[in-house]
UniProtKB/TrEMBL annotation:
PROSITE patterns reported for this sequence: PROKAR_LIPOPROTEIN
Source superkingdom: Bacteria
Source species of the chain: Labilithrix luteola
UniProt name for this protein: Lipoprotein
Length: 114
């Protein structure tokens, strides 16, 4: 993942935290799969309304544990455990466990390999 992508992910995460903090609505849990970033984030019911807005242009799937399991190589945990982003091998970023760990740590997270 390029530094530009890391910056984008950090910006989205920060923006999401602001939106969630200001939102009183809740919906059903789900996930946002961002194929171009090789990542997917799971959201709780309390976060889902804001998350669906942030996921426009990507693939939202309702339900719990809905991030794809195929090609998953690990999870990046950030925001004191409040954000868990699944990371995937394969195109477009061709993540390996080492590259995923490095990318996660540059974004301020802790990488948990699967």
């Amino acid at each position: 993942m390029s530094l530009r992508s890391v910056g984008w992910v950090t910006l989205v995460t920060g923006s999401f935290a602001v939106v969630v903090g200001c939102s009183k609505q809740s919906g059903s849990p789900g996930s946002c799969y961002r194929e171009r970033d090789s990542t997917c984030t799971e959201y709780s019911a309390a976060e889902s309304v804001a998350a669906q807005r942030m996921c426009q242009g990507f693939r939202w799937t309702s339900g719990t544990n809905t991030c794809p399991k195929e090609n998953r190589i690990g999870a990046c945990v950030r925001e004191n455990g409040h954000v868990t982003e699944m990371m995937y091998s394969g195109p477009p970023n061709q993540f390996t466990p080492d590259i995923a760990r490095s990318t996660c740590e540059r974004a301020g997270g802790t990488f948990n390999a699967l």
